[in-house]
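Supplementary Note 3. Input sequence used for the single-chain structure prediction.
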Amino acid sequence: MKEYRDKPKNFVEPNAAELKARGRRNIGIAVALAAFMIFVFVTMVTRGSA
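The predicted structure, written as discrete structure tokens, is reproduced below.
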């Protein structure tokens, strides 16, 4: 029985379209995380001063 810890033997090299999609996805995640952090900060500041 093969275990999940076994090292893979063959790797698939991503093509240009997949790399571009990965970059856009990473930028989208970063923007969403930054927006969430700003939202939490603004919420904490406004609730703290009330």
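Residues 42 and 48 are 10 Å apart (CA to CA). The radius of gyration is 20 Å.
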